[in-house]
Amino acid sequence: SAVISQKPSRDICQRGTSLTIQCQVDSQVTMMFWYRQQPGQSLTLIATANQGSEATYESGFVIDKFPISRPNLTFSTLTVSNMSPEDSSIYLCSVEERPLGVNEQFFGPGTRLTVL
Amino acid sequence: GESVGLHLPTLSVQEGDNSIINCAYSNSASDYFIWYKQESGKGPQFIIDIRSNMDKRQGQRVTVLLNKTVKHLSLQIAATQPGDSAVYFCAEGSGGYNKLIFGAGTRLAVHP
């Protein structure tokens, strides 16, 4: 499976600021996804990021708050804008591969964000 | 900082026992199901998957059972080891399996 890295691994930020999270994959992938995992909770899909097109956002998530870039097939960024304490979460990127002919999603290690 | 699964239901088992983790999925149209394991400070790790045309699939020490009638999924871990301690999530997908819907998660605590 693809090796996925994220930067930063964790950060503590002040409210009102923005943070950009990077996701790097060691192979070319068509579909990348960004998830949020709030403290003690499950994962919620924020958006799907395909290279060469605008990201597709899920209900409850908007581009102004979570702008996404996908400049090539190995890299994506997610920005958390105008942060508030409610944005404190783990943010995870994932990629979709077809190792055995079935689409499978593999996750990066996550970025733990704390907003004060 | 707060760890993953702090507020999730916990299944406690003795080392060497078999573990069964259950999941009720939400969408009757889902046709693909995955179990993930998430250790503290890490992203979810793929364990095993099953398609809706099957009701059982086995891996190394793990078995997934699917009951579409009651929309229920279970993960069985044989001879549970301390390294199995983690939070386990089921996820469901449909169509091209692109969008995964994750279940609430269960923390598995293995005691020596």
For the sheet with most strands of chain B, the description reads:
6 strands, mixed
Overall body shape of chain A: globular
Distance between the termini of chain B: 26 Å
Rg of chain A from C-alpha positions? 14 Å
Describe what you observe in this structure:
The complex is a heterodimer of chains A (116) and B (112). With 116 residues, chain A is an all-beta fold. The N and C termini of chain A lie far apart (36 Å). Chain A contains no helices and eleven strands. Chain B is mostly beta strands. In chain B, the strands form two sheets. In chain B, strands 1, 3, 4, 8, 9 and 10 form a six-stranded mixed sheet that branches. Chain B has a four-stranded antiparallel sheet with strand order 2-7-6-5, with no helix packed on it. In chain B, strand 8 (86-93) and strand 9 (101-102) form a beta hairpin.
Topology overview:
The complex is a heterodimer of chains A (116) and B (112).
Chain A lengths: L3 E4 L2 E4 L5 E7 L5 E7 L5 E8 L5 E2 L10 E5 L2 E6 L8 E9 L6 E4 L3 E5 L1
Chain B lengths: L9 E5 L4 E6 L7 E7 L6 E7 L4 E3 L3 E6 L4 E6 L8 E8 L7 E2 L3 E6 L1
Parallel strand pairs in B: 1-10
Antiparallel strand pairs in B: 2-7, 3-4, 3-8, 5-6, 6-7, 8-9, 8-10
